[in-house]
Design goal:
The protein is mainly alpha-helical. The chain is 79% helix and 0% strand. The chain contains four helices and no strands. Helix 1 crosses helix 2 and helix 3 runs antiparallel to helix 4. It is elongated.
């Protein structure tokens, strides 16, 4: 395994702190690590949409305080429908 000087120093430091050899530290790290798959473009778009919906929901709270509940309720119904469709699309 090739590492740069800074990575080697980091490895030696962490292995020493753990009371292990560098090889043992690497084996333990590999054995107990969890690899997460990269976010697909579709999932990234879903995440952006949900963040946008979160912002819209926050805006409806401001509208409800300013203009009354009836107007904000319609905005919330539309937002909930969009969120429901997005969740169904991903089988959630």
């Amino acid at each position: 395994m090739k590492v740069c000087t800074a990575e080697k120093f980091d490895l030696l430091t962490k292995a020493g702190q753990a009371g292990m050899t560098p090889t043992e530290y690497i084996r333990q790290s590999v054995a107990h690590s969890v690899v997460k798959e990269r976010m697909t473009p579709e999932l990234a778009e879903f995440r952006r949409d949900v963040c946008g919906m979160k912002n819209n929901l926050n805006q409806t709270a401001h509208v409800a305080n300013r203009d009354g509940y009836a107007f904000a309720a319609q905005m919330n119904r539309e937002l909930c429908a969009r969120l429901d469709n997005a969740l169904k699309h991903f089988g959630l």
